[in-house]
Amino acid sequence: MGRGNWGRWVIILAVALGSVWYLIPTYYSFFVLPKAQRNDEKVLQARLPRWAPSARHRLNLGLDLQGGIHMVMRVDTQTALQKRVERRGLQIVNYLRDQHIEGVTYAANPEKLELTLKAPDAATLDKVEKELKGFEDFTRVGRAPDALTYQLKDTQVSRFREDAVDQAMLVIRRRIDKWGVAEVDVRKMGTDSIQISLPGQQDPEEAKKLIGTTAQLEFRMVDEKSNHFSQLVAGHPPPADSGIRLVRTSGYEQLEGKDREQLLAYARQNVADNRQVLLQCVTAQAQGATCDSYLAYLVDKAVPLTGESLAGADASRSQTTNDFEVNLSFDTQGGVEFGKLTGDNVGRYMAIVLDDNVNSAPRINERIPNGRARITMGRGAGKTDEQAYQEAKNLELVLRAGALPAPVTVGEIRQVGASLGDELVRKGSLAAIVGLALVVAFMAVYYRKSGLIADVALILNGILILAGLALFNATLTLPGIAGFVLTLGIAVDANVLINERVREELAAGKSPRAAVDQGYDRAFWTIFDAHVTTLIAGFILLSTGTGPVRGFATSLIIGLVASLFTSIVVTRAITTYFVHGRGAQVSV
Amino acid sequence: MQILKHKTNIDFIGKRKPALFISTVLNLAILVGIAIFGFNFGVDFAGGTVVELKFDHPIRADEVRARAEKAQLHDVSVQGIGSSSDNSYLLRLGGVTQLTQESAVTAKQALEGLGGVTAFHADVQNGLINFRTAKKVDPDKVKEVVSGAGTGVKEVRSLGTAQGGGEDYQVVASGMADRITSAMAKGLAKPDFRVQRIDYVGPQVGNQLRNKGIAALLYAMLAILVYVAFRFDFKFGPGALLAMVHDVIMVSGYYLVSRREFNLTSIAVLLTITGYSINDTIVIYDRIREEMARYKGKPLPEIINIAVNDTLSRTILTSGVTALSLIGLLIFGVGEIWDFAMAMLVGIVVGTYSSVYIASPLTIWLDERAARKKAHGSAMKVRPA
Q: Bridge-partner residues for A217, per DSSP?
């Protein structure tokens, strides 16, 4: 062995040992831990010896191999846009009225995202057009004698869509977090889809229900002056066994009852057309899952503000009063509207409504001008700090999670049962072992000693691929196993190329040593080119593929890099060792 | 041990014309076949619902089908997977939601029966009905009437009060998987099967996936072509490209003729084949380049013949060994993986063929054409003098 080869051997040894070292967490997760805890990183970390790599570096099984649900949610931005156009119509008409331009009406064309403003005369229409020049989200697309047509700008549409998807993704992530599923992967896919992986979950209907329900957040004014409820109780007393009673704990009339449907049906009787009854769920414990009773609110039917304008919500403890509070921030437009809403309604109560359920109804103490609002949590009835904090936290979550800007629908669901996953793992590994064994046997028979060298490289290659997958915390899928097998085939290819070349050089009468050197040198670029082209395909697959196919691309890429290393560096070192050593024979 | 004991001296290039002719005819036939018959698209691309059921007792495919028929599930396709002792079947239905053009009409009539419906829009692709009513309606009532009209309802959402007046609602139709499992369990005290797997792809997602797959394939070819042009003489580029196109078409032909499902895995196979089959082409090109340097002045066809012959045992061996590694997958792989291995095998065989018979001859043809043009060009120059 020449001196110059020492470096090469050190590298090979380091890579080989490093690979085995990196497979330790994977070994523990598959063969030491019970199956149920396989994905629990904390448990795994606790079990690993101190000198082992971090539990993060382990091979994961894809959803198709361990069972679970993969789903793609589509964000229905079109519906949300249509509603937005309508809402803007109302806002514009209100704005014009504030500018003393009267008599303007609007009609929305949801299909084209257009808004048509009608005015009683041409002079008013001119004024409208002038006023609306400053509006940045609409462009004028047409003018008739008595009407102006505006369309939502494309830039607005695409920004809205993007924001809607981002926001929906956050909401979904929070909902799943609340669900307590480990190892969830939520990511954006394309322009309007969100991809969710839920390993171990088995019921797609349950998952759809959890993720797909649209929560809609609204701010509505409580009608605290009305005596509707007291009149109702006086005029039509509630059934004695219903437990419905009139309460005034918050400073205005409310009804309380145990049964949701019964209370709602009762409270809704004779409600004025512009009013609506909504219920609040009351729980005795701060984090109770069930409602102990319900409170009925009489609120305005009009929705002056929705969660769409809300930019953020944070629960914290006030520095001055030591009370818990939730700080809200609105976007520019929402801030203006919120300022107007609060200014017009100082002293009244504003109901925060999520999915038609009142969450809370704080009192408006003053006009809130700058798009930042604070909801102070009450400290009545001997609430502990923890309870008060929990309430603030819950409200924060409702405000943030509630602002789902567009309905979401299920675009794709793939669910694999756990037993099928086990079967596929068994069959997949068997298939890989059989393929490997066939190739190893063939090489040994066909090329004898060189074949054995190639076999050593091949097995090292297999270990390298697994270690590479573990290092990058990659996911092994069923197509990934196929990719693993295929790259082993390609790795052998490289050795075949080299050995055939060496044979040719030997046949041309070269010495074994020269034949090996020339064989490797000449084959190098061929092998390199061949690997690069397949790598190109692999990377494109990785960037465009989803789910299991990405798993295939990952093992293909790692496998090709490993194959370059083993076929060019490892086998050469071994072969050179034999050629330069005793007898200088080469067996190809 | 050696496959080819002596150096071969087969005149590959001499037979290039019949080979090219046959290949061209075959490729055109496949393209025409795809245009006429189309692929058997899997749910990945066509959209739809696949449910894999494992029965706890032996059952024949026609019994499964009869059960579906009995429950008014007519267009479901039933396919056994794995060995017959697995008792596993794939049940596939075209739609993803229970909302169809027809059921949307009946649902509309049913909703109008509630009174006050001012607007109605059915989004059949996503299984959504949006409607507006003058007054608030009870979501449970909506669910009841729409279900009664033949569309299973998963959820009725209230979208709130419209600014122009009226209440907006959205009806989300149930998925087809529910329909399949309930149909199969109909009349049984307890289902005699287990749901192993559900695949459910919406048609819009399907279209997106398909377009992305085709785009990926084109990008890959382009990127590989750029690499080949950069590493080799540009005159090798068209040959390599044509070989890639040939391989993709031939493997597509396998999917066309075998009627195996064409899905995301198929795209992965096609991409891998474009990357892999170029390997043989590169081996031969490398050798051609080497021989060109060694035998300066020899005509290109002869050099190519030498190069192809010299690398023949390599070509056969490399492809053979890769094919060998797939055998395990062919024996133990079920469903998707068996399809993968089989298509890969086809790809390896046609890839090897195309390196010899497509890539090399095209290089010669281009070379000859360039030479003729050059000669022609110089003749032109001479004439005016």
A: A354
Beta bridge partners of B330: none
**Into how many domains does chain A fold?**
3
CA pair distance B261, A55, nearest whole angstrom: 39
Nearest to A460 by CA among A133, A7, A11: A11
Measured between beta carbons, which residues in chain A are less than 8 angstroms from residue B223? Answer: 536, 540
User: Is residue A76 within 8 angstroms of chain B, CB to CB?
Assistant: yes
A173 pLDDT exceeds 50? yes
Q: For residue A500, give both structure tokens.
A: 């055939």
Are A72 and A173 part of one and the same domain? yes
Query: B13-41+202-375, superfamily in CATH?
Result: Multidrug efflux transporter AcrB transmembrane domain (1.20.1640.10)
> Residue A255 pairs with which residues in a beta bridge?
A246, A296
Closest CB to A431 among B178, B198, B328 = B328
The residue segments making up the domain with residue A128 are 68-214+404-416
Condensed to tens digits (0 to 9), the pLDDT of residues A302-311 reads: 777 877 677 6
Cα A343 from Cα A361, distance rounded (Å): 17
Which residues numbered 413-472 in A keep a CB inside 8 Å of some CB on B? Answer: 413-417, 419-420, 427-428, 430-439, 442-443, 445-448
Q: Distance from B287 to chain A by nearest Cα, in Å?
A: 9
Please give the full DSSP string across A199-238, using - where no structure is assigned. ET---HHHHHHHHHPPP-EEEEEB--S--HHHHHHHHSPP
Q: At what angle do helices B335-354 and A478-507 cross, to 10 degrees?
A: 30
Residue A38, phi then psi, degrees to nearest 5:
-55, -40
- Residues from chain A contacting residue B220 (CB–CB below 8 Å): 536-537, 540-541
The C-alpha torsion from A315 through A319 and A322 to A325, rounded to 10°, is: -20
Inter-residue contact A567 to A453 (CB < 8 Å):
no
Measure in Å the smallest separation between the Cα of B51 and chain A Cα atoms.
9
CA neighbor of A423 nearest in space, from B92, B82, B90, B326: B82
| Nearest CB to A496 within list B318, B334, B340 | B318
Task: Tell whether A52 is covered by a domain.
Answer: no
Domain residue limits, chain B: 13-41+202-375, 48-96+177-198, 101-173
Beta strands in B285-326 (DSSP E): none
Closest CA to B41 of B217, B196, B264, B214: B264
Cα separation, A207 vs A214, whole angstroms: 14
DSSP string, B330-372: HHH--HHHHHHHHHHHHHHHHHHHHIIIIIHHHHHHHHHHHHH
Q: What is the mean pLDDT of residues A178-205?
A: 72
Same domain membership, residue A258 and residue A372: yes
Which residues face B41 on adjacent strands?
B262
Indicate the fold that domain B48-96+177-198 takes in CATH: Alpha-Beta Plaits (3.30.70)
Q: What is the CATH number of domain B101-173?
A: 3.30.70.330
Is pLDDT at A3 greater than 50 in this prediction? no
ipTM of the complex: 0.76
| pTM of the predicted model as reported, rounded to 2 decimal places | 0.68
* Per-residue pLDDT at A177 exceeds 70: no
